[in-house]
Design goal:
CATH architecture of one domain: 4-Layer Sandwich
Shape: elongated
Strand content: 15-25%
CATH topology of one domain: Glutamine Phosphoribosylpyrophosphate, subunit 1, domain 1
Strand order of the largest sheet: 7-3-8-2-14-13-15
CATH class of one domain: Alpha Beta
CATH superfamily of one domain: Aminohydrolase, N-terminal nucleophile (Ntn) domain
Number of strands: 26
Amino acid sequence: MNPDMPAPSGLYDPRFEHDACGVSFVANLKGVRSREIVTLGITALCNMEHRGATGAEAETGDGAGILIQIPDAFLRGVLDFELPPVGAYAAGLCFLPAGHSRAADATTTVERITVEEGLRPLGWRDVPVNPDCLGASARAVMPTIRQYVLDDPHGATGIDLDRKIFIVRKRIEHELVGDMRTYFPSLSARTLVYKGMLTTPELGDFFPDLWDERMESALALVHSRFSTNTFPSWPLAHPYRYVAHNGEINTVQGNRNWMRTREALLESGVIPGLDRAFPIITDGMSDSASFDEVLELLHLGGRTLPHALLMMIPEAWENNEHMDPRKRAFYQYHASLMEPWDGPANVAFTDGSVIGAVLDRNGLRPGRYWITKDDLVVLASEAGVLEIEAARVIRKGRLQPGRMFLIDTELGRVVDDEEIKLELAAQHPYAEWLADGLTNLDDLPAREHVVHSHDSVMRRQQMFGYTHEELKVILAPTARTGTEPIGSMGTDTPIAVLSEKSRLLFDYFQQLFAQVTNPPLDAIREEVVTSVGTSVGPEANLLSPGPDSCRQLTLPFPILDNDDLAKIIHINDDGNMPHLECTVISGLYRVADGGEGLRVALDRVREEASAAISSGARILVLSDRNSDEVYAPVPSLLLTGAVHHHLIREKTRTQVGLVVECGDAREVHHMALLVGFGAGAINPYLAFESIEDMEWTRTKRSRTTSRRVEKVC
C-alpha cells in the first residue's frame, strides 16, 4: 500500500485514484540538444497552471514535473566522481525517507540491491531544493531528495542498461516500504525526471538545477496534475518514467487484476530474472502510474514504445470496415494478448529518442500540435502554451481518436500514423497466426436445442428468486427490443447491506461504479468505438509473441445462449480441438449442510478446477444446473471469484478460459460483475429459458383466445 494514501474509509478507496490534467511536450525535430528546449518546457508547464489543482493552501499543488534527456554535461559538472561515457551510466532522482537516519539506511539498502543484481553504484548527490516555496502540507510529507548514479561493470548501455536497472528498481520498491519507502521518479541511462507535489511555477523554484545553463535536452515532457477523486502525493506527480497522461483509465481495476494474473507466464530473454520484479504493478498507485509500469514492461521486454502503446490503447478497429486488413490483423492478434486500457486518455510519451502522443479511440481528451520552420515541435492539451509567431508555423493540427503523433529525433522527422502501424503490422504474419489459431463460435457444429417445460421453468425461477417485476420490467422488454430497459434513477428500496430481505449477492456490489468525468457517448460514436466481442481460452507469454498466443475461441458476445454453450461443452467431442478441451464443474452444495456445506463445496470446486487443468482442460464451465431441494446453487459471483482467484494463486489462471452457466444472473449489472470477477463468457440459462417460456405462454394464450373467438362467431 502506498503510505502517502489514506486507508480506505467511508466512500474513499485508494483503488479509485485517477488523474485529469494538463500535458505538453517541446522537442527539436532533428534531436539537437539545447538549453532553450528545457526553458520552453518549463514555460509551457507554467502556462498550464490552470490545468492543475491546489488544496486549501495555494502553495500546495497536486503535482508538476518535467522529463528530459540525460543532461550529461550538467551531471559531469556537478558530480564529484568520474562518469563513464554518456549512455553507459544511469542517473535518477530518488525520493528517500524523511530523516537522516532512515534515509541513510535506505541508501545502504539501495546500494546492496544494486550490487546483488550485478550493477555498480557510482555515487550519490544531494539535490539542491528550496522548500520555502512549498505549502505546509507538501513540506510536511516532503521526502529526502538525492540523485543516484550507477553503471554496469559488464558494459551494458542504453536500453540494455535500463533493462538491468528495471529489476533493481522494482526490488527497491518492493523491499523498502512503509516508513522506509523509497521511490525513483526515474532511474535510466536515457531520461531524467524532476517532479514533486508542486504547483507549476514551483517546479523551477524548488529545483534550481533546472535553471543551470548546462541543463540541455532535445526534448522536454511536462505535466500539471489535477487529481480526480484522489489525494496528491510526491510520487504520483507526472511525468512517470515514460508517460504523462491527461484523462482517466476507467478499466484500471480489471487491467491491474489481469496483469497480476499474467505474471505466471511472463519470461523474457532480454530481462533475465524478471520474476524478481514481480509484482509489476505497485499497489496504491494511480491509474496513470499503473499504465506506465505496464508500458515500461512491454517496452523493455522487446517492443518499441509505439508498439507497446498501441497494444494498450488500440484504435477502434472491430467495426471499421475500411481499415487495412494488415492493421486489423495486428489489433486482433494483440487483443488476444491483453485487453485495452480504456478511458478518455491523451497520453504523451517518450523514451528519450522518440516523443509523441496518442489519443484514445473515444477522442474525449484534447491535444494540439505545432511544427515550426526552425524544427521546433510543440504539443499540448490546449492552444497557447507558448507564444509562437504564425509565420514560423509550417504545420499544425490536433490529435485524432486512435491516432498517434510521433517525432523520431534520430530520424529527424515526423513519422506518420499510417506508417507506424503498417510497419508494426508487417513485423509478423499476424493474419496467418489468427487464421491458424482462432476458432469462431459460429463455425462449431450446432447441438440439439432443449426446451424445458413450464413447470420446470417456474420451479427454478422460484429457487433463484425471480420476481414478476423482473420478468415483466427487465427480461420481457430486453427480449423484445434487444436493449437494456430504461428506468428511473431513484429507488425507495434499502441498499442490500441494510435490507432485511434476502438479496442476491450481486446487489451488494452496486457501488462498484466508475468515478469519471467524461461525458456519455453519443449513439453514433458508440457504434463505431465500442465492441462486445471477446475470446476465451488459454493465453501465452505476453513478452514472447507467436502463433500460440491466439489459440482461442472467439465469441461475438460475452453472453451465450443455451445452444452456444452446448457447442462449447462439446467442442472437442471429435478429438480435433484438444487445445480447447472443455470441462464442466458443478457448483452445488447440500442444503442440509448449511454454511459449512457451502465452504466445502467451494474447496471441492477449486480442487476440481486445478485437476481439470492438469488433465488438459483449457475451458472450464462453472455450472449451477440441476439444483433442487437437496442441492442448492452456489451464488455464481462467489463461485466465479473463488475459482478465478484460486487459479491466480496457483499460477494457472492464464491456462484456461472461464465460462459461467448460471441461473441467478438476469440483469446487465449481474453480467458486468461476473465479467469483472473473472468470467470470460456467461450463459444465464434460466433467463433465456424464462424468455422462451414467456413466449410459449403468450402464444398459448393467443391460441386459446382465438379458439374462443371462433366459437363465439
